[in-house]
Structures are given as C-alpha cells and as structure tokens.
Amino acid sequence: MTQDILRELIDKRLREIEAIIEDRGAASHAAANERASKIKDDVLADFIRRESSPTFILDKLASIRRLSELGALEPAYRQLEYLQSRLDYITQIVREPVLKTGFKQRQWLADRRNAGNEIRQREAVLRYAKWQTEADDIWRRHSGLSASAVAGHVKERLSLSESVGTIRRAIRKPI
Q: Which terminus of the chain has fewer CB atoms gathered within 10 Å of its CB, N or C?
C-alpha cells in the first residue's frame, strides 16, 4: 500500500515538473543564464547554467522515472527531492537581486559598527587608565591587597557605577 502511494506521488511530481519545463523551461533557462552572467563566482554560475537547462532537467526526470519503474521507489523519491531542492535554489538565486543592495547595506552597517566600536574602545582605554592609576596608588600604600579589594577601593574613591568585577578585570597589580 505504501509503495503504491509513493509511486503515485513520484509520478505526480514528475508530471508537474515536466509540465513546468514544457511551459516555461526555455524562458526560465534564459533568465537563469542572464543571472549567471552577472555572478562573479564561476562555479556557481556554471552550476546555474547547467542545472537550469531544460535538457538536463528532463534527463534527470527520465532517470528518476526509470528508477521508479524498476521498483526502486525510495532512491527515486530521494533523487526527486534532491532535484527539486536544486531547482528551488536556482529559482531563489534568479529571483532575488540580493547581491548589490545587500552588499551595500552590510558594508554601510559594518562601517558604522566599526566606527562606533573604535570610539567606545578609545573611551574605555582612557577610563581604564584612570582606574589603573588609582589602583597603582592604592597598591603602593597597601601592597598586600588583592585585585578585588583594590577594585573596591577604586570604585569607592572614583564614585564609579561599574561593578567591582569589571574594575578588577581592567586593573593589573604592578610587578
């Protein structure tokens, strides 16, 4: 019973894909070739040209049909799923002009993020230098104190809102 259902499903999907190829295969292949010509990655462009060819797809469908007729339904179904996923991937690439607008947007965001990070890092270096100066002064007077104890004193002396742990990680005991 399950084998009959699987055979019917495979035959139905094969007919659907064949109908699509007959209806708009040449136009889809032309659109895919045009898109492939704009892609800088040669491997991806070749993949799109080859896999979107109506002849290539119909050959794959015939191979899947032969497997189904020989009774190898599970391998036929897996190959059909694989073919469908590759066709979906090609369709996605052809339809989405992501590369230009996406690249520009990501580049703009990266530039802004890096600029903001640099500013925050410079401010932190200055802040940590003040903490270290204060910590050095405390350690000069009380050399036996731990980093956590000194961080507590630094927080108190400079009226800081940062936690003692944050201050402790930023200061180093002089050698």
A: C
Q: Give me the half-sphere count of Cα atoms (radius 13 Å) on the Cβ side of residue 173.
A: 13
- Work out the number of other CB atoms within 10 angstroms of the CB of residue 67: 19
pTM of the model: 0.51
pLDDT tens for each residue of 64-112: 999 888 888 888 888 889 888 888 888 887 776 645 567 778 888 989 9
Which token pair is 49?
């040209």
**59 CA to centre of own chain:** 33
Instruction: Detail the DSSP E strand segments found in 38-171.
Output: none
Residues 6+ apart with CB under 8 A from 138: 145, 150, 153, 154, 157
